[in-house]
Amino acid sequence: MPTTTPSVDVLLREAVRRLAPVLPMLQELGARFAAAGHELALVGGPVRDAFLGRMSADLDLTTSARPDQIEAIVAGWADAQWDVGRAFGTIGLRKDDAGAARTIEITTYRADAYDRTTRKPVVEFGDSLTDDLRRRDFAVNAMALRLPELTFVDPHDGLADLAARRLRTPGPAEVSFADDPLRMMRAARFVAQLGVELDPAVRTAMTEMADSLEIVSAERVRDELSKLLLADDPVAGIRAFVDTGLAQRVLPELPALRLEIDEHHRHKDVYEHSLTVLRQAIALESVRDGSGVTLPGPDLALRLAALLHDIGKPATRRFEPGGGVSFHHHEVVGAKMVGRRLRALRYDKETVQVVARLVELHLRFHGYGSGEWTDSAVRRYVTDAGPLLPRLHRLTRADCTTRNARKAARLRTTYDELERRIAALGAAEELAKIRPELDGHEIGAVLGISPGPVLGRAYQHLLAYRLDAGPVGPAAAEAELRRWWAEQPEASA
């Protein structure tokens, strides 16, 4: 039997039901604005999400009142308020509602103008809800619910777009993106977050206008890229990001993974492999590893590392006799490339260091053969990974994308065994806390040297000795230190 699409009234009743936890508070606020002669409406993401069957964490409202009037209306009603967005017509509130602290942003109707050389608008206040909705980024975000009467306003058919899983702009896409090029990044993000597809006109405009991203700050681009990656399933959004050419302007190392493959030089499609690794890493975030650890996902560093772990391959590709292809040291080259790119995107220092180190380490497991791990190798693996070990476990497992079931099973079994070895040695030796059996003061006393580079080298030598030999005791450590020192040029100086 053919299925029928629920009517707008039915969908609206469902959306209102989902908003039930906050509606009494919002209708009370709407009544205050109405009493003062002003309009108020819930707008954008909260309305969209209610139709999608989820509750938005944000409560965005729009009003005919100016900022000073907003402050006067909410005085005595809000438990706290702030005006850091006043220049853009926004007043922020906090309201304690039935034991929950709700954050609300109320913004005056806007009718902004853009000079097309910067994405910062010339802020102009508007006079109608319809005009305010026209300036919004996408039709699915241009729906509103008037308060307190709960009248649904949808002048650009955003609800129909949600039903069709389609992403359109309220007006011509090229005009919208010329006004604010960051909207193109946001489009890729919504493909991931909302499960929508780009309208053909939107896709065409993104492809033709990708260069205009140059006027957007690296920080804003970074934030959109991070939000895309933190979606439940970011792969569709990444495909939109790459296929429209946006990635070429923001993260060119990603489309570069689409290496040309010919019948004579066979190797994996590195781009598709990287997307699969990302999906598999995401699936492993909440899985308990051999140490009983789960990640409090979504984990941005792990996802960046999974997506970019092979970006050193294009630069290191070599065609070998017989049709083979090699990528020697691509993990080292890739780590440097990741560091440069993430710094250019203004990621914080810790994220840059973590992602680059994971990329550098992602092949370490495969460097130890088929599972004949010595205690020394296990200690070095754990020590090199340090606090990144839980992420490295997941990245290494996710990096297995072979279709050969027997090979995949063998790799899983080998890594299972490694995790058991790590757990056993960790219990016996506290691997995460391994230090040389002589500290810096003791090394200096034995060798008669002061703190400095030479003492640092001595410390690193004893650490390597501890990793190789295991716990040997201070006497054996001192003997090894003296043996090493006798071979150093400084000893005879």
Protein described:
The chain has 493 residues and is an alpha+beta fold. The protein is built from 23 helices and eleven strands. Helices cover 50% and strands 9% of the residues. It has a seven-stranded mixed β-sheet with strand order 3-4-5-2-1-6-7. It has a two-stranded parallel ribbon with strand order 8-9. The radius of gyration is 29 Å and the shape is elongated.
Main features:
493 residues, alpha+beta, 7-stranded mixed sheet, 23 helices, 11 strands, 50% helix, elongated
Strand residue content: 5-15%
Number of E-state strands: 11
Overall SS class: alpha+beta
| Spatial ordering of strands, largest sheet | 3-4-5-2-1-6-7
- Give helix % range: 40-55%
Based on CA inertia axes, which overall geometry fits?
elongated
- Overall pLDDT score: 88
Q: DSSP helix count?
A: 23
How would a textbook summarize the main sheet? Answer: 7 strands, mixed
Provide the low-confidence segments as ranges.
262-266
* Radius of gyration, CA atoms, in whole angstroms: 29 Å
Span from first to last CA? 94 Å
The gist of it:
Helices cover 50% and strands 9% of the residues. It is an alpha+beta fold and 493 residues long.
Task: Please outline the helices and strands.
Blueprint: H1 8-18, H2 23-35, E1 40-43, H3 45-51, E2 59-63, H4 67-74, E3 80-82, E4 90-97, E5 100-108, H5 129-134, E6 144-147, E7 151-153, H6 158-164, E8 166-167, H7 173-179, H8 182-194, E9 197-198, H9 200-209, H10 218-229, H11 235-243, H12 246-250, H13 270-284, H14 300-308, H15 313-316, E10 318-319, E11 325-326, H16 330-344, H17 349-361, H18 375-385, H19 389-398, H20 405-429, H21 440-447, H22 453-469, H23 474-486
Parallel strand pairs: 2-5, 8-9
Antiparallel strand pairs: 1-2, 1-6, 3-4, 4-5, 6-7, 10-11
